[in-house]
DNA sequence: ACGGGTGTGACT
DNA sequence: TAGTCACAC
């Protein structure tokens, strides 16, 4: 029920509300909580942060070790928490005997090796959940099974704060009567289609269809995937990734709250950009990562006019570090999208006051996040100073600045940012374009779901951007160059600092599990966010380790002009990373063999 | 059940 | 690469 109803029914009820900052919901409390739990779980095996409160753990190694060194059957006593497990296929009626049956199952000597591993997993997971509870005060639920799909399914079967196990022999029974809509990925349109188009309601029904038949209806990949999951087969690997791949900040403006003026849109974009930037700064500071693409999403409708439900296009551009830069670029992206949305007829000559459009949703997000190799302290400082530089707001400066912004500005030459006020402080900029994939590290993962948050203290969020003042402050200006043209060209050519980073090859993480992983998915509930903070150092450590791997780059990918734009200090630092042996034979970019001009194939001279 | 704020991945 | 769509928490 809604809060109001609840209050009416229970006047003394304690309702917890999501914190608000900058006029919008602030989820940092939850992000921090999630990170705390991940940092604990990641110690035990490969970990994948599946969402803000969910993780998957691949405990294969830990389980195998236990089986080899101290198998359950050799233990004199089994963890009480483990004995509380729900094991599918084992009846646990009356309260006294079931722990015995669980113990028997875990210690069964004649068990299939896979189930013996599961038995170890049960003990490990029980231990982990206790540790999470003790160290964070969050409880969590878990599923222990042979793959992600089954573990996820199981984790939701006994909540809160319990764990469920799927023995190999229980898979069929579990699945046959299970409504397909309960399976991850089938909760939406595909599940509906399966139901209405093929009459499939349960996974058991799905079992009747041949792989070919399913492929005819849903394509090769989806068809095969469906055929497999009906049999409890899921080859999905647990990704070793503890950090999010993107950051976003958005807000909806339902019904009467829809935005109707450019200046209002700009106001909210500024708020959203500010939050986004704060998070980017934390990421840089804590994880040494840089995002390189900024994307603007909006939802809109045009009152009255025909096809008022046309989609508002999303737009993106290179992400430049600096709050005002993000705000500026976001607004420019919006205007570019708006013109496209309104069509050739969107031009101004519309006498009456209010616009014909209504914005019901806005969001800005940052993606293509790459690690900065360890040891690049000057690069860190560079980006930090970038964000520190306040404003030098002069229209002339703005112009130049604009010319430099590739995508976001390409459109901004014309329109009026009139009413918008606020000096747009164009600072020196450095556009970042593109990046490369995730260099995952391998750790375990887990996810928790705070059920009741009693955290009323918004300040428990740990990142105060003291290191990355979001604005104002003295200007260190002169050490970075303000030129525009060169950077613009390099941006066009898609080369920049991040391009260099991206080639830093994630050291082959080896580690190739195959089948029969003990995968765990935990879901937690409840928790009183105590002010526990500094666990951040632990996180840093984890993240730091993987960065020590060597990295290489292709000389051919560094544009001379890009290099020239870098502060001397950074040019020097980069030089230390350059690996002559990686020099390509022919001009190529991104290793895809495509030729590219304007690329230097030699070490750029240091410039001061 | 529904809505808000996020986030990921497939596909074009 | 940019942009859309589906799905999930």
Core attributes:
608 residues, alpha+beta, Dna Ligase, domain 1, Alpha-Beta Plaits, DNA polymerase, domain 1, 3 domains, 6-stranded mixed sheet, 4-stranded antiparallel sheet, 22 helices, 12 strands, 38% helix, disordered C terminus, DNA-binding
Number of domains: 3
CATH architecture of the largest domain: 2-Layer Sandwich
Count of individual beta strands: 12
Q: CATH superfamily name of the largest domain?
A: DNA polymerase, Y-family, little finger domain
Proportion of beta-strand residues:
5-15%
What is the highest CATH level, the class of the largest domain? Answer: Alpha Beta
Helical coverage, percent range: 25-40%
SS element count, helices: 22
**According to CATH, what is the topology of the largest domain?**
Dna Ligase, domain 1
End-to-end gap: 65 Å
What topology does this entry show?
Layout (H helix, E strand, L loop, with lengths): L2 H7 L10 E2 L2 E2 L2 H14 L4 E6 L2 E5 L1 H10 L10 H4 L2 E2 L10 H10 L5 H24 L2 E7 L2 H8 L7 E3 L5 H6 L12 H10 L4 H5 L3 H8 L1 H10 L17 E6 L9 H26 L1 E14 L12 E4 L4 H20 L14 E15 L5 H12 L6 H10 L1 H4 L75 H8 L4 H6 L16 E7 L10 H12 L12 H6 L2 H10 L31
Parallel strand pairs: 5-7, 6-7
Antiparallel strand pairs: 1-2, 3-4, 4-12, 6-12, 8-11, 9-10, 9-11
This protein binds a DNA duplex (12 and 9 nucleotides) through strand 2, strand 8 and strand 11.
